[in-house]
Every structure is written in structure tokens, then in C-alpha cells.
Write the C-alpha cells for this entry.
Amino acid sequence: MHDTRATIRLGTDATSLAEAGRLLATGALVAFPTETVYGLGADATDSAAVARLYAAKGRPSFNPLIAHVPDVGSAFALGEFNAEARKLAEAFWPGPLTLVVPARENGQVCDLARAGLSTLAIRVPAHEMARAILHAAGKPIAAPSANRSGHVSPTEAAHVLSDLDGRIDAVVEGEAAGIGLESTILACLQERVILLRPGAITRKAAQAVIGREIENPETSSENNPLAPGRLSSHYATRAPVRLDAEEIAPGEACLAFGPGLPSGADPARTLNLSDRGDPVEAAANLYAMLRRLDGLSPLAIGVVKFSKTGLGEAIFDRLQRAAAPR
Ligand code: TXA
Ligand code: MG
């Protein structure tokens, strides 16, 4: 609401979380931790608050937002869940899953938050602080990742402040986000289930719940109406990102994954997502390590080759977007 106001730092005690919810309910922009990444919240029913949110992020306003609610019952009130959507909701909520379903006629999420679409993206986060804030707010909260549009998503309160200090009303300074990658997005529309964004709920885990294959979006994500905001270039570092690097050139930084380093890697400019090759640890480290390597102003960031199955699919998806020409 107040573009030039200093950003309030809130703690994580019950009073502070209730205050965060109260601020959101009165139209303020408040960043808060979730188990995936930090979100920047605004009242999803208030188009003026949502407009300020787009402005603070510098986000193209055709990009629709996820409505966050504290429990499955509130989610069912906002969208039309078919049998498969219900199964997925019951299996994975609260948790790092977003479901895109037809919006209910009487749902209160404003047109601007939905970017005019007839569908709605909904998530019930598992993070206890996020749930307490949503509960206190008492309204669906639109919450994109709390970074400037196109930047790497924030996994720590300090990342939020480096992008948005002075542009938002408050930030809840919690711990680092545990998962480190944005939620898996599945669209459940007209008897189809489509993976719009890979994440910690893997394709395999979701397929096991519905008992059949999950589809991929048919066209490249750039022009795909099912994933309107999934720009092929995203998560941008200043340095170019080079994937499947087998050697590291002088002046390049290296993002390693697993034991051993590629030839030419300078240990002072190398970070390892996970020495022991653990994809869960790698996901949690990804955005913070990209930020740190980028801060060394290398000629490029060479990323070693790694397995692209399971959580590796989500990690590779983000790196591909970071590496896309822009
Ligand atoms: O983990 C997360 O999902 C985080 C935390 C804060 O919850 N939020 C997040 O929001 O990643 P955001 O705005 O950065 O990403 C939302 C994605 C965008 O790619 C957007 O295009 C897509 O969800 N989306 C939203 N509504 C949609 C809809 N109706 N149909 C298809 N895609 C939609
Ligand atoms: Mg984002």
C-alpha cells in the first residue's frame, strides 16, 4: 500500500504471525516463508492490493497468481475439483503442490489475480508459519515468489530484502525455505492432468495417486495458455548459465553436483549443490548458490551434468530457464 514506506521486519512468534495476517487482510504486501520458497502475499480478493503486488515485483500483469489458503476445505470453496483433483489434493495437501482447476463462479479471487482466466491456481502450504498467517488473514492470499520478476526465487529472508526492501510493507524473517524450489503445478482440467511445472511432488508420485500417466503441456511453455507465466527465460542470473559443462574455462564459476569436480574448476569459484549427490539437498541449495556464484561476477556459470529424473526434473527445469537466451 505504501510504496515509499520502510519494510517492517516481523519475527516468527505467534503475535508477529497474527500481525502479518492482519496486515495482509488490510491490503498490505507481506513476504513470508513457505516450505518451497518465500512468497510475497497480497489479499487475492482485493484488486488494488494485487496491482501493488505486480508493481512491487515488476511482473507482467498477464501472469496469473496462486491463491494460498490454510486448508483443503477453503481450497474446495474456490475451485471445481474433479475426482482426480480431489485425490491429488487429499494426497499432497498441505504441501508443495499447486492445482489449477476451473474457478468457482462465486469464488472471491479477483480477475486481476487470475489474469482474467477462467481457471485458478490454488495451494495449501505445509509451512506452519505460512498456515498461521493464512489463517489469521482469513482470505485467500495471492503469493508469487518474493523476488523481482525474472530474478532467482528467494529461499531466505535476506534474499527477499535484497530484491524488495522498501518496496513491500513487511517481511516475516523465518528460516531458510526447506525445499528450495517452487511448488509442482498440475492442471486438472476436462479429464486431463497436465504437469505445468515440475517440483518436489514428482511426476512419479502424482502418477501413483491418479493411477495413470500425467501429460506434458503440448507446446513450448512460452505461448502455452496453460502455463501463461512460465517464460522460457526466467530465474535470471547476470552471468550466463551453461548446462552439462564437462570443463570449466578460466574466469567461469562452477556449480557442481555430486562427488568430484569437472576439469578446470577453480575451488574458490565452485559451489557444490550436494557433495553426496542428494537431489533434496541440491534443490534446497540451488537458488542461494546461483545467487552466490553470480555475486562473483564470473564470465559464466558452468553447471555439471546430473540425473534429470525425480526431483532432478524440477532442478533441471529451473536451470534450463536460467540458461535460456534472453
Ligand atoms: O511454491 C510456490 O508455488 C510459490 C510459493 C510462494 O507458494 N509461489 C510461486 O508463485 O511460485 P509464482 O507466481 O512465482 O508462480 C506461479 C505460477 C506461474 O508460472 C503462473 O503462470 C502459474 O503459476 N499459474 C497461476 N495461475 C495459473 C492458471 N490459472 N493456469 C496456469 N498456470 C497458472
Ligand atoms: Mg516466481
